[in-house]
Amino acid sequence: MNSKKFPFADSPDTACFTCRHVLEDNKPILYVSHDEDGCWQFLCGENHAEDDAIIVSLAKILSIDESMEALAELDYGEYAEAEDETSDWNIGYVNK
């Protein structure tokens, strides 16, 4: 069994949003937000329709892309975005 500590303060089974582009098309996660209400979003950075949204666990997100643990400390109201998989993350605040 893996003894590595889960990097997020939220539990591994916390529900979060992703898009079908990440899950079905294997697009990279290029936009992450930790909304004011505590919800997490892990998206590809493209435009989305409502039916593109999928709810998964934080553990599932880490199984898709382990590098997301680098963003586990995003505070409420913060987001991170990158231009592509090799770019650095730019951190900002979600507009109200």
In short:
The chain has helices at residues 20-24, 58-64, and strands spanning 15-19, 31-34, 40-43, 53-57, 78-81, 90-93. With 96 residues, it is an alpha+beta fold. A six-stranded mixed sheet has the order 4-1-3-2-5-6.
What does this molecule look like?
The protein has 96 residues and is an alpha+beta fold. The protein has a domain at 26-57 and 67-79. Helix content is 12%, strand content 27%. It has helices at 20-24, 58-64; strands at residues 15-19, 31-34, 40-43, 53-57, 78-81, 90-93. It has a six-stranded mixed sheet. The chain is globular, with a radius of gyration of 13 Å.
Furnish the topology, listing elements before pairings:
Layout: E1 15-19, H1 20-24, E2 31-34, E3 40-43, E4 53-57, H2 58-64, E5 78-81, E6 90-93
Parallel strand pairs: 1-3
Antiparallel strand pairs: 1-4, 2-3, 2-5, 5-6
Uncertain spans? none
Nearest-integer average pLDDT = 93
Residues in helix, %: 10-25%
The computed structural class is alpha+beta
Label this structure with key terms.
96 residues, 2 helices, alpha+beta
